[in-house]
From TrEMBL:
Residues 389-498 are annotated as: Regulatory domain. Mn(2+) binds at D14, H202, H204, N238. The keyword GTP-binding does not apply. Pfam families: HCS_D2 (PF22617), HMGL-like (PF00682), LeuA_dimer (PF08502). It comes from Parabacteroides absconsus. The lineage of its organism: Bacteria, Pseudomonadati, Bacteroidota, Bacteroidia, Bacteroidales. Keywords: Acyltransferase, Amino-acid biosynthesis, Branched-chain amino acid biosynthesis, Cytoplasm, Leucine biosynthesis, Manganese, Metal-binding, Transferase. CDD domains: DRE_TIM_IPMS. Its cofactor is Mn(2+). One of its GO terms (molecular function) is 2-isopropylmalate synthase activity. This is 2-isopropylmalate synthase.
Length: 498
């Protein structure tokens, strides 16, 4: 008999806090439904008091999802808890996740308080949340740097006050795996009433140890893990769901099982990456493009003789199917619909017809349509409501000549045109654009995603544009890389010019 590990997904809360990764409510529902199909136990749907958008998302996700528990984050503040309870009212199973900083730096500098006062506030928040829901999780923020003896007192107090789950976040990603494991062990051994609650891990990846720390937490008694798809999250991110699921699936000797249907991992990983415009590093464990690519001669030879020589995971177990039908201009709607389904996207006939039309245009330009292309096509209507749209772009460039660009924009239906020269085709096009949009904008980052399938591939461009002290993120995808760059710039501008 293996021990059940609960998977608490925070892609839509901690993951979504990453600048530039914000999703709208429709996109969040799409991710939540895919998380449900993946088999996660708890979905942290947002921080309702933080914005009307977060509130609405928690409401809509609660309505859209059936069996996972829906969780809403709060501070240890009555108003936050009131708003969270209101947002959760449609959830079939609901949880309030409240908490406060427990490390000395948090107590002293953030709250200008004392250890005793923090315990009082923790008890009060837990009791208050229990008035609304039966399932209350308490987080001891910065538990990673909280002295174990004091942490045990906080954990004991909140369990006595009614917490059903206690979260031990390594908020700053500071702990060593041994240290984090020992912390969980200490709590398991020193907290009176620990059997009445589940201890949860919540590890950040600042030193690249989030997964190792989470594993140590579980091996020492934690039975819930807080994770995100692709390990996204603030700074260096959170523990990645797919790594934890596959570690315990591969290491049966640990005696830990989860409810995750691992064959859905690949689809949801691509979906989240695409919706959040957040490329996955090629060497990312489990879901990176190269995760199963054996390039050295010795490895290739071994894998061809028997995959077990170098592969510890069958790619099919995470939903990667080498025999998947390749999509080309001759593929029909059914094949496209099936590929979208594998990638976790369910669409109606009208949307399928619309994507299929774009699919045929793209298939005319390139031989094979990849999963990334399909995801871009599925998300293409994200720019339909743009205030500023690119009508046309013409660029002349070459070696030994200065590049020249002319472009046409449509701004709320009105047409504008401009031309400029520049230090290259993108520079020329952006200079022309700035003649129409008179704002002090600075291009801060410009990433062209690797093109992997030949010179006819769709180029994907991510940009960060600074305006008025804020950074705005833009994304563009086009078989013409200059057009993709201009589209990304325009996408970013649309976030601040309304
Ligand atoms: O990292 C952290 O401490 C958190 C808490 C709010 C749970 O995200
Ligand atoms: Zn966190």
């Amino acid at each position: 008999m293996s021990d059940r590990l609960f998977i608490f997904d925070t892609t839509l809360r901690d993951g979504e806090q990453v600048p530039g990764c914000q999703l709208n409510t429709v996109e969040k529902i799409q991710v939540a439904k895919a998380l449900e199909a993946l088999g996660v136990d708890i979905i942290e749907a947002g921080f309702p008091v933080s914005s009307p958008g977060d509130f609405k998302s928690v409401v809509e996700i609660s309505k859209a999802v059936t069996w996972p528990t829906i969780c809403a984050l709060t501070r240890a503040v009555e108003k936050d808890i009131d708003v969270a309870a209101e947002a959760l009212k449609f959830a079939k199973r609901s949880r309030i996740h409240t908490g406060i900083g427990t490390s000395d730096p948090h107590i002293k500098y953030k709250f200008n308080s004392t250890r005793e006062e923090i315990i009082e506030r923790a008890i009060a928040a837990t009791k208050y949340a229990r008035k609304f829901v039966d399932d209350v999780e308490f987080y001891c923020e910065d538990a990673g740097r909280t002295e174990n003896e004091y942490l045990a007192r906080v954990v004991e107090a909140v369990i006595k006050a009614g917490a059903t789950v206690v979260n031990i976040p390594d908020t700053t990603g500071y702990c060593l795996p041994d240290e984090y494991g020992a912390k969980i062990k200490y709590l398991m051994e020193h907290v009176d009433g620990i059997e009445k609650a589940i201890i949860s891990t919540h590890c950040h990846n600042d030193l690249g140890m989030a997964t190792a720390n989470t594993v140590q937490g579980v091996l020492n008694g934690a039975r819930q893990v807080e994770v995100t798809i692709n390990g996204i999250g603030e700074r260096a991110g959170n523990t990645s769901l797919e790594e934890i699921a596959m570690i315990f699936r591969s290491h049966k000797e640990c005696g830990i099982s989860t409810n995750i249907n691992t064959t859905k991992i690949y689809g949801i990983s691509r979906m989240v990456s695409s919706l959040m415009n957040m490329p996955i590093q090629p060497n990312k464990a489990i879901v990176g493009r190269n995760a199963f690519a054996h390039s050295s001669g010795i490895h290739q030879d071994g894998v061809l003789k028997n995959a077990q020589t170098y592969e510890i995971i069958d790619p099919k177990d995470v939903g990667i199917d080498d025999n998947a039908i390749v999509l080309t201009a001759r593929s029909g709607r059914a094949a496209l619909k099936h590929r979208l389904h594998v990638l976790g996207i369910e669409i109606n006939q009208e949307k399928l017809d619309q994507i299929y039309e774009d699919f045929l245009k793209l298939a005319d330009k390139k031989k094979e349509i990849t999963d990334d292309d399909v995801l871009v096509l599925a998300g293409a209507d994200r720019s339909m409501n743009h205030h500023i749209k690119l009508d046309y772009l013409q660029v002349t460039s070459g070696v030994g000549v200065r590049s020249v660009a002319s472009l046409g924009l449509s701004i709320a239906g009105e047409k504008f045109e401009a031309a400029s020269s520049g230090n290259g085709p993108v520079d020329a096009a952006i200079k022309a654009l700035k003649q129409i949009i008179h704002r002090q904008m600075v291009l801060k980052e410009f990433t062209i995603q690797a093109i992997s399938k030949g010179s006819d591939d769709v180029g994907k461009v991510h940009m960060q544009v600074e305006y008025d002290g804020h950074v705005y993120y833009g994304f563009g995808a086009n078989t013409d890389i200059i057009a993709a760059s201009v589209e990304a710039y325009i996408d970013a501008i649309n976030k601040f010019v309304k």
